[in-house]
Amino acid sequence: MQNGDTRQISLMNYTWFPNQSELLLLNEGDIWHYQLNEEKLIRLTNTEAVEEEADISPKGKSVSFIRENDLYVMNLDTGEERQLTTEGSETILNGKLDWVYQEELVGRGIFRGYFWSPKSDKIAYLRFDTSNIPEYPLVDWRPYHPEVENMRYPKAGDPNSTVKLGVVSIDNSETVWMDTGEEKAVYFPRVYWLPDGKTVAFMRLDRLQQHLELLFADANTGESRVILEERDPYWINLGDYVHFFKNKDRFLWGSERSGYNHLYLYNYEGKVVKQLTGGEWLVDKLAGVNEIDGWIYFTATKKDLRERHVYRVNTGGDKFERISDRCGVHEIKMAATGKFYADKFSSTERPSEVTLHRGSGDLLETIVGDDQNLPRKFAISEPEFLTFTGDKGITYYARIIKPPDFDPGKKYPMLIYTYGGPHGQVVQNKFGGLSQKWHLMLAQRGYIIFSMDNRG
Predict the structure, then answer these.
(1) What is the DSSP letter of 338?
(2) Within 10 Å of residue 161's Cβ, how many Cβ atoms?
(3) Contact 127, 94 (CB under 8 A)
(4) CATH class for domain 239-372?
C-alpha cells in the first residue's frame, strides 16, 4: 500500500474500523489511517518515539495507543492528541502488559492491557510497577563486542509486578482506581466492560492459580463486589468463555468444576441460571453468540477428543446440536452478529480449506479450497492413530507415521516425539498440526515417527 509520497506501508499489522471501510495501520512505529472507499492514506503520528498497541474506539471516532509506556488517545476528526496517563517509565507500564501477563496469562505476543468502554468515553487499563522484579541479562553475541540488554524477569519465588486497575476518562484524563482488594500477590488476567458502559468486570487470580474470582466494579467510584468464585486444589485453567448479554442481566461463564470445561449461564448476582453443556467432554473454544436468535456457538471434543467439531446450544439449554459433519478439526470465526461463521477445516486426509456457513451450519461458499491430491503428489504418509490403556484405566492417544514405502519386513529408525506440557495436543485428526509437517518430511526419508499425548 502506498500514499502520495510512494512510501510502502505494511499490512502485517492492521485493525478494521467498525464501519468496515477503514483500516488502522501500524508501520515502523507510527500509526496510519487508510480509507478504502476514497483510497486515502493519512499519517496520524510522526514521532521519534514508537507508538504501539493501537486500537479504535467502539464508535470509530478516536484512536488509542501506547507511547513510552503512557496511554494516549487521538480524535480522528480534529487530529487532537490527548495524553491520558503521565507516569510511564522503564518500570511503570500504563496499558501495556508485562512479560508474565503476555506469556502466561493473556497470550504470547499480546501486550495490550487497556480496554475501551462501549460508549467510547472511558478506557479501563492495567498499570504495572515492575521495579521490584529482578533484572535478567540478555546477551546479544552477534556484534564484535557483545551487548547486554536487561529485562525484568521474575523467576520462581521472585516478586511479580504490582498491578492496579484504573478507569480513565477521555474528556479530562482523570483516573479512578478500582478496588481490587488488599492482597498484592494476585493477577488480573481478564478485564471486561459490561454492556451498560458503567461497570468493569475483572478476574482476580491468586499466584498459585487455585482460586479465581470474578468481580464487578463501578467505573465511576471504583467500588467492587465479588460475583462468583472458582477453586481447585491443583490448578485453574484460564480461558475465554465469558460473554455479557446486551439486553439481559446474564452472562456466560466457562468452568472445569465438573472435571471438564463446560458453559454456564449466570445472572449478575452470581447465581447459576442454567448449566448449558455437560458430559465427559470439553468445550474447547467459545466462538460467538447470536443474541437475537439465542444461539451460542463453540467447538468441542464431544464426538472425538482428537477432533474439534462445531456445536451450538440455545440460551435455554434445551436445544443442542452439532452443525459440522466432516471428521477432523474445525476452527471457526463468527461474525459479530453470530449469523455467519468461517470454518477452517482439515484432517489427516485433507489439507486445510476455508468455508463460509450460515449459523445453521449450511454451506454458503468455499473461500479457500483444499488440494485433495496434495498427499499423493508429495508422497505424504497418512498418520495412523493408536490407543493405550494406562494403569488407572485412563486411555492414552498416540499417532504413528510410517515411510510412504513402508515394508513391514524391514527395520526402521524411530523418532519418539511428545510435547509433554499442557495445552499442546499433538495427536489430532488434523493436517499439519504441532510439528507434523516436520515429521512427514522425516517419514519421507525413512523414519518412523511415534507421538503420544500425556494426560491433561
Answers:
(1) S
(2) 25
(3) yes
(4) mainly beta
